[in-house]
Amino acid sequence: MKQGIHPQYRETTISCACGSVIDSRATKENIKVEICANCHPFYTGKHKLLDTEGRVERFLNKYKKKS
């Protein structure tokens, strides 16, 4: 492997919208996710709607021009 070209692999915190916090290792420092294994309907067996941001707002934020 070449030295100095790979991103640093470090301790990180993964935060979910449900409030769950997971300690892991990744190349990013803090990761925020909308859904995790603790609140995903497949793992919990419960169906619930978790829409922290509307679809239109998410689209507009993703494609808005940076000035």
Brief descriptors of the model:
67 residues; alpha+beta; Rhinovirus 14, subunit 4; 3-stranded mixed sheet; 2 helices
Counting copies of identical and different chains, the oligomeric state is single chain
Q: Could you tell me the mean pLDDT? A: 84
**Number of distinct helices:** 2
Sequence stretches where pLDDT stays below 50 over 5 or more residues: none
What is the string of SSEs from the N terminus onward?
A: EEEHH
Cα shape: flat
Structural class: alpha+beta
- As for the number of domains, it is 1
Biggest β-sheet, characterized? 3 strands, mixed
Spatial sequence of strands, sheet with the most strands: 2-1-3
CATH class reads: Few Secondary Structures
Number of strands: 3
Instruction: Report Rg.
Output: 16 Å
CATH fold annotation: Rhinovirus 14, subunit 4
Walk me through what this model shows.
The chain is of the alpha+beta class. It has a single domain (10-63), classed as Rhinovirus 14, subunit 4 (Irregular), CATH 4.10.80.400. It has two helices and three strands. The chain has helices at residues 41-44, 55-63, and strands spanning 10-16, 21-26, 30-33. The protein has a three-stranded mixed beta sheet, with no helix packed on it. β1 (10-16) and β2 form a beta hairpin. It is flat. The model has no long low-confidence stretch (mean pLDDT 84).
